[in-house]
Amino acid sequence: MTKPLTIGDSILKSRLFLGTAGYPSPQALGESIEAARPGLITVSLRRESKAGKGQNFWNILKSFDVPILPNTAGCHTPEEAITTAEMAREVFETSRIKLEIIGDQYTIQPDPFGLVEATEALLKKGFEVYPYMTDDLVLAERLVDLGCKILMPWGAPIGSGRGLNNPYALKQLRERFPNITLVVDAGIGAPSHAAQVMEMGYDAVLLNTAVAKAGYPAEMARAFAQSIEAGRAAWLAGIIAPQENATPSTPLIDKPFWHQQ
Amino acid sequence: MNIIINGQPKSFTAPLNLYDVLAQEEVIGMMIAVARNGTFVPKDDYAHIALEDGDDIEIVAPMQGG
Asked: pTM for the whole thing?
């Protein structure tokens, strides 16, 4: 019943997008990717030397045959993010970019103004921009007007594991942008949070810390994959509307002793 | 000639192009990308970029990310 998610020319195998940072070991990262079977895996760029640290990491990742979503994590200005995106396109040979521009160091809240500026520039350069954003409706409208096909509002601050701080705003985005691919990125802590996202009709969930820092990362990766699948199926099946009053589920017609007083 | 490589000042003998610096840093052949003074440089241009004193070079490679 659940169709695969298609973004651009890519048909993704899963609606779980998995980050690759913070695992206790390369082995734990590999086992988590195996267990999650994610649709995309996120990566970054950092300074390289002749020691070749980045080359070793890449050798682990490329064996999994999962499409790559590079990010601009740590960038604080549009200029930094644009240059990082261009470097990522050359290294990873993909025009996908998770555009992340930090506006507040304490919450790692994305900077909406820098995001709009960099998105406009990167779209003109032919990038497929995945903007990491707050759940602000007007910001979303601006990004869609620029040509974004994908939006990635936060659930809560990165790494917080709080779940969805503002389900109302996320539902508004889903209702207002039925034809845009919507992904909740950041703040997810438990599989139930991911299921909640998918039950709202979101297209995918991007998470990292909840798996990487779990007691057993690979088991948690599997749990997230199952919850996202379940949430998606529930959305497609049609979730009943909540009501204030009870409604008996067992029919009362022909119940013995009916109306005997 | 002083060039900043990944935030560290280093001395090189002029004249120098970007490819020469990357070769001396032993990163040629690696999966890398490069920026000069904050601007991306495509790999096909390395040998055509003459460096100037004080240039700031960033060399990056894949790393874990969320």
From this structure: 0.92
